[in-house]
Every structure is written in structure tokens, then in C-alpha cells.
Design a protein that fits this description.
Elements: H1 2-16, E1 33-39, E2 44-51, E3 69-74, E4 77-81, E5 83-85, E6 99-106, E7 112-118, E8 125-130, E9 136-148, E10 154-159, E11 166-168, E12 172-174, E13 178-187, E14 190-201, E15 210-217, E16 227-228, E17 231-232, H2 243-251, E18 258-259, E19 261-265, E20 273-280, E21 285-290, E22 302-308, E23 312-319, H3 321-337, E24 355-369, E25 380-381
Parallel strand pairs: 1-24, 13-25
Antiparallel strand pairs: 1-2, 2-6, 3-4, 3-7, 5-6, 7-8, 9-14, 10-13, 11-12, 14-20, 15-16, 15-19, 15-23, 17-18, 21-22, 23-24
Length: 383
């Protein structure tokens, strides 16, 4: 049966493989103001502002707007003009040509936020979003289960003589180096997984709600950069994908869904509540102590190791409708990339009037879970 589907796809691709030359005149194309950002309660508002430009323009300053004014209105009342600031590139990635603006005031749940951007010679752009009421996490029940593993069980660690993150002539920048096996210490012959039943309750009203689930683990070395844990959602129908994507997954037997976060709606809620059924892994991290070679060509020797059981946090983000629409449009990109030859042109959701971009809002709640100490023996480590 699968061969028939594949033959059908191949025939369709071949029948569509034709070319048509089009002459496009870009001379009358007028730039538009571009705005991007996410509004959160009880925090300053930050937005990135630039202008659109043709893909043929290779000037690095093409999207930059020198004279631009950004206004904040809350609940139909002017509040302030946002001030330009320099982004901290140690924590965030600055995009080419963007100017960044930030408010002094904070907004709260339920506020209707309107941001207007104007610049000489361009049409004034504006965007509006309402900060949603956060959902409540009523409970998180957990249970451990195991998934068999295959392959080499010998434990080891990576060591790079030029630093943990350095330049390698073969692979460029990355976490390269040597793999140092440790005799007498072995990986467990299975993966430790955790099943989570997360009770979520939304606000009582007739408005549709949109959510995002994220599970993170504390990073003991870099507090500002927690680890995103994989979220497996294939056992819960609330995360079901669009019929088109389900068909393609069935066709190629790819029913395993793992992401660092997952979007869902309240369409299966009963009496404003629902219990999510997901699982995650990578609950333990292994920290290795080793000697530091002093001579070139020497390799480190293993000294000891520690299995860390850092707490994890379950986060439920309540999204505005425009934020949900944006995430779904981006999510569709990932599906189409696998079938790029037959996909339609990709369009990212935009809610900026008289301009381009996306400004949405969200609120959130979280629950912390303490992972029990590693129960394995001193000569084993978790995968």
C-alpha cells in the first residue's frame, strides 16, 4: 500500500516539474516598517524595528531606520514613547539592521497594548495585542519508565585541548575534541524516561485559549541558560497535527513527535480543565572531573564523576491568538522542509497593520519538580 502512495507522489512531482519565466518590476516597491516582539505582563516592553528591503539588496544597512518614533498605548491611552537601547549580545542575538526599543512602564494581564511606529517617508505601522490571563497548573503527577537502548555501553567523556567551545579545522566552531573512554564505568542498558500528567485549568470564559508547554532543567553552571528538555507528545490527542501532516506521517511511518516545546489549544478541555499526557528524558547530567594535561599531545585522565539530579520546571504559557497563529505558521515551515519540492510558498503570519512583522503577548505559570537522586550503582551512569 505504501508503494502506491509513493508512486502517486513521484507522479505528482514529475507532472509539476515545469518552468515559467516571469519578469518582475521592483522599481515601484515601497519599503514597509517591520516590527517584532512579545509582550509579557509585569515587564518592560521591547520591540525590534526595521524596514523591509528587496532580497537583491546586499547592503548590510538596508533595513536600518535612523529616524523612527515608537509609541506605546495601553487601553486606548497614550503612555510613552519607547526609548532606543543596545541589545546585550552576550544573552541575545541581534539581527542585522534592527533597532531595539524598550518602555519604562510595565503592563498587566488583561491590558490592550497598541504599539505605533512612524518614520519619515513611510506609512505609520501599528499592532495591537491583549495580554491573556495565565492558566493554572493544578497538579503534576510523574512516573519513571524505561526504554531499551542498544550500542556501546562503555562510558566516556569528550575533551578539547583548545577549550570546551573552540575552532576545529575540520568542523569549524563547535564542541569537538577527543572521546576518552573510562574503563569500568558503563552506561545503563536503557533510557530513563519520565511520564508527566499535567493538570491545566484555564480561565472561565467563552474565549478560545492557546497554550505552549515547555519543560526545562536547571543549568548549574550557567544559571541564565536552562536546558530545554525534549517533550514527547505522541500519546496525547490534544497535540494532534493538521490532517495534511498526519497523512504524510502515516505514509512514512513517522509517528514519533519530540520537540523542545509544544503548542496546543483548549479544544479538548472539559469544564475548563484538561490533563496533559507527555513524557520527557535527559533527567540526569554527568559531570566528570579529570586531569588537565600540561604538555601538548597528552590526554586527560579520569578522576571522578557525579550524576546530578537538577530540578526540572514545567511551564505553561498562555498565548494571545496572534502569538498562536505566528507559532503555527512557523511550525508549518518545519513540516514543509521535509517535502520542500512539493510545498507551497511559505508565508509567516503577520499582524502588523500597514507594515510587516509580528507582535504578540503571553502570560505564564510554572511548577517545579525535584528529580530523585540517581538510583544506579557507582559504576553506572544514565544515558
Amino acid at each position: 500500500m505504501k508503494r502506491k502512495y509513493i508512486s502517486f507522489l513521484i507522479t505528482t512531482i514529475l507532472s509539476l516539474s515545469c518552468e515559467r519565466m516571469l519578469e518582475v518590476n521592483f522599481s515601484d516597491e515601497k519599503p514597509l516598517i517591520v516590527m517584532n516582539g512579545v509582550v509579557e505582563p509585569d515587564k518592560p516592553i521591547s520591540v525590534a524595528v526595521s524596514k523591509s528591503f528587496l532580497f537583491t539588496d546586499t547592503d548590510s544597512t538596508a533595513p536600518y531606520l535612523k529616524d523612527v518614533s515608537v509609541e506605546l498605548h495601553v487601553n486606548d491611552t497614550f503612555v510613552e514613547k519607547l526609548q532606543r537601547f543596545t541589545i546585550d549580545t552576550a544573552k541575545y542575538r541581534a539581527r542585522r539592521g534592527n533597532s531595539y526599543f524598550r518602555s519604562e512602564s510595565h503592563v498587566k494581564v488583561g491590558d490592550r497594548v497598541k504599539i505605533k511606529a512612524s518614520a519619515p517617508g513611510l506609512e505609520t505601522a501599528w499592532v495591537e495585542t491583549v495580554i491573556p490571563t495565565p492558566a493554572a497548573i493544578e497538579k503534576v503527577d510523574t512516573a519513571t519508565f524505561f526504554v531499551p537502548a542498544t550500542g556501546n555501553n562503555t562510558f566516556g567523556f569528550y575533551w578539547n585541548p583548545y577549550g570546551e567551545y573552540s575552532w576545529n579545522s575540520d568542523s569549524g566552531w563547535g564542541y569537538g575534541g577527543y572521546y576518552i573512554p573510562v574503563p569500568g564505568i558503563f552506561y545503563e542498558p536503557f533510557y530513563r524516561r519520565m511520564r508527566l500528567h499535567i493538570g491545566v485549568r484555564k480561565q472561565k470564559n467563552d474565549v478560545a485559549h492557546y497554550f505552549l508547554l515547555r519543560i526545562i532543567a536547571e543549568n548549574t553552571e550557567y544559571k541564565d541558560y536552562p536546558f530545554n528538555l525534549p517533550v514527547e507528545t505522541q500519546d496525547d490527542p490534544i497535540f494532534a497535527r493538521d490532517p495534511k501532516n498526519l497523512f504524510l506521517e502515516k505514509l512514512f511511518n513517522n509517528n514519533y513527535s519530540t520537540n523542545s516545546s509544544s503548542v496546543f489549544t483548549d479544544n479538548l478541555f472539559t469544564e475548563n480543565a484538561y490533563t496533559l499526557n507527555v513524557s520527557t528524558g535527559e533527567l540526569y547530567t554527568v559531570k566528570v572531573e579529570h586531569t588537565k594535561p600540561e604538555k601538548e599531545g597528552e590526554k586527560p585522565e579520569y578522576l571522578s564523576h557525579e550524576v546530578k539530579n537538577s530540578p526540572i520546571e514545567v511551564w505553561i504559557y498562555t498565548l494571545s491568538h496572534d502569538y498562536y497563529s505566528y507559532l503555527k505558521s512557523v511550525e508549518k515551515w518545519n513540516y514543509d522542509e521535509e517535502f520542500d519540492v512539493i510545498s507551497e510558498p511559505r508565508v509567516t503570519y503577520s499582524n502588523v497593520h500597514n507594515g510587516i512583522g509580528f507582535v504578540g503577548s503571553m502570560s505564564y505559570t510554572s511548577k517545579r519538580i525535584q528529580i530523585p537522586p540517581y538510583p544506579g550503582g557507582k559504576n553506572t551512569v544514565p544515558r
